[in-house]
Amino acid sequence: MRGSMVAAALVAALAGYGSSVAIVLAAAAAVGASPAQTATWVFALCLAKAAGSAVLSWRTRVPVVLAWSTPGAALVAASSGVTLPEAAGAFLLAGGLVAATAAVRPLERAVSAIPEGVAAGMLAGVLLPFVMGLARAVPDGWGFVLAVVLAFAAVRPFAPNLAVLAALAAGVAAAAAGPGLPAVPLALPPLRPVIPAFRAEAVLGLGVPLFLVTMAAQNLPGFAVLRAAGYDPPVRPALAVTGGLSVLGALFGAHGINMAAITAAICLAPEVEPDPARRWRVGLVYGAVWVGLGLAGGALVALIPALPPAVVAAVVGLALIGPLAGALGAAFAAPEGRFAAAVAVAVTASGLAAFGIGAAFWGLAAGLAAHALDRTARR
């Protein structure tokens, strides 16, 4: 196993965990989850991501990387008047709908028809704000950013694949030496089931929007990221597995998992494994890392939010510079597709959100519309 695979999987998992766990914690608080139920929620998500990533990568020989639904967590966090059992009932519905979608062949054909330039443009638009976040973090924590960047710059000329890990270690050390880090519990997280309750208002008002947001803002961009990296996305198996695991996770109060986009970009870079046919093994390493994160969930739920935001922003920004360069190169490789790719980049990077759906979906839609107009004009 290449050290670059371990480094990429570790950074991707830590970046995904650290950048969005606060939203998951807010979602748990919104539905009245206790600390033990919140720890169970996070633990169930970690185990589902680990199992799904490893199984799909091994069976399909495609580097499939899964994530929890960050927009979905934000949707839950914005809800009111919903209890945890009622939320679990809504999560069951959303996961079941995702699994049922695996039987719909037109969706698979639609994903396969996305032009590579548009898909790469959407990916570049997703990554760009995170890379820019590195510079934006300077005013709020220039000392932390400096420590992270210096470690990255010192290691990269000699060991490029380990540079981001060195940056992360430097950021944690700087945080420990500066404001300090809280004491964290060492006990294993609980795994307590939740008995779902089915109230029509909660099931329809939360479950259906959660399904739509997960499909539009997570799964479709995630499949597009795989396509931009040169892979044929395993649409039906991925929907079946993520939907089924989301149903199981709902029995423990978890809101669901789906295809990853940002963290997937870290694992799909050529530096991870030069041979694309062997790159699928990063999914196995990624799954193992998430098992570790799940077992350490009690400690990490306390530690990650305590890290200075500048540390997380700097590490994520540095980790995504390489994937951003690759996405931009693929987006603008074909001259006839550059306009559509630029539209996808611009709309996605703008952060546009409408009808509860994030910018990645709208950037993809805008790029496809521009591509269709260009094809019509050429005809």
Report on this structure:
The protein has helices spanning 3-30, 35-60, 70-77, 84-101, 105-112, 116-136, 138-155, 163-177, 200-228, 235-250, 262-268, 282-295, 297-303, 309-319, 321-331, 338-349, 359-378, and strands at 66-68, 257-259. With 379 residues, the chain is an all-alpha fold. The protein has one domain (3-331). Strands 1-2 form a two-stranded antiparallel sheet. The model has no long low-confidence stretch (mean pLDDT 84).
Map the helices and strands.
Blueprint lengths: L2 H28 L4 H26 L5 E3 L1 H8 L6 H18 L3 H8 L3 H21 L1 H18 L7 H15 L22 H29 L6 H16 L6 E3 L2 H7 L13 H14 L1 H7 L5 H11 L1 H11 L6 H12 L9 H20 L1
Antiparallel strand pairs: 1-2
Helix pairs in contact: 1-2, 1-3, 1-11, 1-12, 1-14, 2-10, 2-12, 3-9, 4-9, 4-10, 6-9, 6-14, 6-15, 6-16, 6-17, 7-8, 7-14, 8-14, 9-17, 16-17
What ranges have pLDDT less than 50 throughout 5 or more consecutive residues? none
> How many domains make up the coordinates?
1
Radius of gyration: 20 Å
Terminal CA distance: 49 Å
Give the percentage of residues in beta strands.
under 5%
Q: Roughly how much helix do the residues carry, as a percent range? A: over 70%
* Total DSSP helices: 17
SSE-based structural type = mainly alpha
Largest beta sheet: strand ordering: 1-2
Mean pLDDT across the residues is 84
Q: What's the order of the H and E elements?
A: HHEHHHHHHHHEHHHHHHH
